[in-house]
Amino acid sequence: MPAVTTSRLHDPAVRGFASDNAAGAHPEVLAALAAANDGHVGSYGADPYTAALADVVRRHFGPQAQVHPVLSGTGANVVALQALTRRWEAVACARGAHVDDDEGGAPEHVGGIKLVGLPAVDGKVTPDDLEAAAVRAAAPMRAPLGAVSLTQSTELGTCYTPEETAALTRRAHDLGLRVHLDGARLVNAAVALGCDLRALTTDAGVDVVSLGATKNGALLADAVVVCRPGTAEGLERLRKQSLQLASKTRFVAAQLLALLDGDLWRTSAAHANAMAARLAAAVADVPGVRITRPVQVNAVFAVLPAPARARLQERFAFHLWDATTGEVRWMTAFDTRDEDVDRFAAAVAAECAQDTGARAGAA
Ligand SMILES: Cc1ncc(COP(=O)(O)O)c(C=O)c1O
Question: Would you identify the CATH topology of the domain 268-362?
């Protein structure tokens, strides 16, 4: 029997709908890692892969852009937000933003940053609500805002258009705030909106981006991209201090290069988005199912009868997003297949039919 360390401990045929984080790495990313192996190169980013990545990132984000590879999306956010704010300043973000709800308090704990939640509809905040929060926060007993963090695509699978982003960055800059974009799924938004990455970031006035790659098919790689140099003071030092500078950064850069140098970022995100659209179309008319958010990227949010949901969760991985409303999130990835979606949609129809008395349809 082979040693456990060289055996598969999971069924590679299984694909659920819990998260794009549940997917493996894209084979081209693994090939890029193998190609970057062997021999000695400079450490901590002084290597040819990181240098090549700097060129590629300038191509995507504009000639001023600077890239700092990191190990996780949370790491990118924490490093970026520290660099964008002074030590007494707070950061506004949508209520329910990943940075506030799902990062274990890392911005507060590691960065010492207070977060201020803004009202959000389908995950999106407005310039007026940002301004109201900035005015409130300016009172002497409060923590003044230093920056706003937007999420693109949002936690609820929606996108800010370039115009919406520009309106927010204009207001933020007028208020003296800097703008961070949590782009864990920026690539999905760019594909959905038919934009390049620059249109949603540099050209829309964003200062610093947390650029996600892991959810797009990397093994373990994200980056902080500074779109407007001079806005993120000390970022290099903060990356090390916040445990996000890998000694073998060549492997982080190689993953990012595999996705961003050619079209892999786009084809992978387009596929993930298309799988969510396929799922939404297949369940939209199932009695008992109601899709609750616009389906723009690779997530479908829905409510369905609680018993059907429970039975489905015994067979398929997905998250109950909101226990009070029963809203679920079904997320697709670069490696979701048509047949995975079709099998799941048929199961949704069959389980809902049991609870609603409807005949399982042709989902
Ligand atoms: C919107 C968003 N931002 C940031 C992150 C953080 O990424 P990580 O889990 O790699 O720290 C996630 C992870 O799911 C996310 O969904």
Answer: Aspartate Aminotransferase, domain 1 (3.90.1150)
